[in-house]
Write a structure and sequence with these properties.
The chain has a five-stranded mixed sheet, with helices on both faces. Strands 4-12-9 form a three-stranded antiparallel sheet. A two-stranded antiparallel sheet has the order 6-7. It has a single domain (about 10-435), classed as Cytochrome P450 (Cytochrome p450), CATH 1.10.630. It has about 450 residues and is an alpha+beta fold. The protein contains 19 helices and twelve strands. Protoporphyrin IX containing FE binds near residues 247, 248, 378, 382 and 383.
Length: about 450
């Protein structure tokens, strides 16, 4: 077997470069070292695979070959019950329980609520107002996820929930997520996160108690977890419920809000694409049936192209529990294997002129699960993928049919790290031109 190409040497500078500008560095390293190479990380060397074949090999392998990456750093933040740190039987059990509400009819039932949240969040917009599109989309997706998880609509209850989530997320500094080194009381973001986590847990407990007492069969994820029973008929422990709900709120709103902000960023710089999208949406009228919107092919292509060009997650990682033959190399237990989503999405042999935002490419050919993979793949593929696609489509449709925006200036945003995800550097500054009637 050939020797595994050694990528850049471990040095604080390389780690910093990869953490802050992963897309550029992945391109450079792939050009220098080939399709698979070793890169340094704070958690030891990572074998990076940059092709669809690498993705296929990781996502179709036996799940028991892998442990999740970064457990030592993530478990104290999210709790042992979190899907992101669970493996084996507890991971399978958690997914079985958490997957259904984010799929099928239960997911589609949130369609009207998603559109309502856009109407509420845009009610205060007025011509000439300048704002960061990412702030607007964050408000919308945070409200959507809080409704889904806790069933909270508008009012003081929701303001409390928003404060709590913002408190916990505000302290979630990238340095905390990748290593335990900074999980120390002297690091102010860590103290903030702990305080936020404690208040969020108390909120979850109070709502769980209220749900048990009311026994009203309310349809939200908290209620579903409270009512769930293990195989031996025992209920879930409070700590497990808190852990799942913290993970869902962290994984479930910042990611979708970033995709939505990027979609606006790209559409405002591609007037022909925006015009074609509106030509597809306008005939459905001002308050269309959400399911009809979600089925539109060009809207689907716009969301997919945004996810391709601006992936929120750069790569997915797995730690090997047993030896693996990967891309003609023998990897040993303890090594980390990664699939570079960012590299695959920018491969010119798959996506000609990869830097260009061109949704048509998704109408011209079908891309497989190892070629377009914003949500990762295999046994850990994002459980919120269908929900997030649905939300992205409905929110984007409501924003572009209801409002005209323009970029505040010609400077484009570039991807920068925000917690685990990569988001737009300036938050997509836009100016409101005014409300718009379909066809206007
Ligand atoms: C644009 C939106 C989103 C993107 C790009 C995204 C991306 C990802 C990725 C790349 C992974 C890792 C997959 C892997 O390891 O193969 C993941 C996992 C996960 N995501 Fe998402 N996600 C998004 C939205 C959501 C939403 C809306 C939710 C839930 C409400 C969610 C919940 C989760 C959970 C719980 C996991 C862990 C799954 C596991 O380890 O079994 N995500 N996501």
């Amino acid at each position: 077997m050939p020797t595994l190409p050694r990528g850049p040497r471990f040095a604080p500078l390389q780690t910093y470069r990869f953490a802050t500008r992963p897309f550029e560095w992945l391109d450079t390293w792939r050009a220098t070292y080939g399709d698979v190479f070793l890169i340094p990380s704070l958690n030891g060397p990572v074998v990076m695979g940059t092709t669809p074949e690498a993705a296929r090999q990781v996502f179709t392998a036996d799940p028991d070959m892998f442990a999740p990456f970064g457990v030592t750093a993530l478990a104290p933040l999210l709790g042992d019950g979190s899907l992101l740190v669970a493996s084996g039987e507890s991971h399978r059990r958690g997914r079985k329980l958490l997957t259904p509400p984010f799929h099928g009819a239960r997911m589609r039932a949130y369609g009207e609520a998603m559109r309502d949240e856009v109407e509420a969040a845009t009610a205060r917009l007025s011509p000439g107002l300048e704002l960061r599109a990412h702030d607007l989309t964050t408000t919308i997706s945070l409200h959507v996820i809080l409704r889904t998880i806790f069933g909270v609509g508008r009012g003081p209850e929701r303001s409390e929930a928003v404060d709590l989530v913002e408190g916990a997320l505000g302290g979630l500094h990238p340095a905390l997520v990748f290593t335990r080194t900074f999980q120390r009381p002297w690091f102010p973001p860590y103290r903030r996160f702990l305080e936020g986590q404690r208040r969020y847990a108390a909120f979850v407990d109070a709502r769980a108690r209220a749900h048990r007492e009311a026994n009203d069969g309310a349809e939200h994820i908290l209620g579903m977890l409270v009512d769930a029973r293990h195989d031996d008929d025992s209920p879930m422990e409070d700590a497990e419920i808190q852990s799942h709900l913290l993970t869902l709120v962290i994984a479930g709103h910042e990611t979708t809000s970033i995709t939505l902000a990027w979609a606006l960023h790209e559409l405002l710089r591609a007037p022909a694409v925006l015009a074609r999208l509106r030509a597809e949406l306008d005939p459905l009228g001002p308050r269309p049936d959400p399911d009809a919107v979600a089925r539109l092919p060009y809207l689907d292509a716009v969301v997919k192209e945004t996810q391709r060009l601006r992936p929120v997650v750069t790569d997915v990682l797995r730690v090997l529990r047993m030896p693996m033959d990967f891309m003609d190399h023998r990897l040993e237990p303890g090594m980390t294997v990664a699939v570079a989503i960012g590299s695959i999405h920018r491969d010119p042999t798959l996506y000609p002129e990869p830097e260009v935002f061109r949704p048509e490419r998704f109408l011209e050919r079908k891309f497989g699960p190892f070629e377009h993979l914003p949500f990762g793949g295999g046994h850990r593929r994002c459980i919120g993928a269908a929900f997030s696609d649905h939300e992205s489509k409905l929110v984007l449709a409501a924003l572009v049919t209801g409002w005209d925006f323009e970029p505040v200036d010609a400077t484009p945003d570039v991807p920068v790290r925000r917690n685990i995800a990569m988001g737009p550097s300036r938050g997509v500054p836009v100016r409101v031109v005014g409300p718009r009637a379909p066809g206007g």
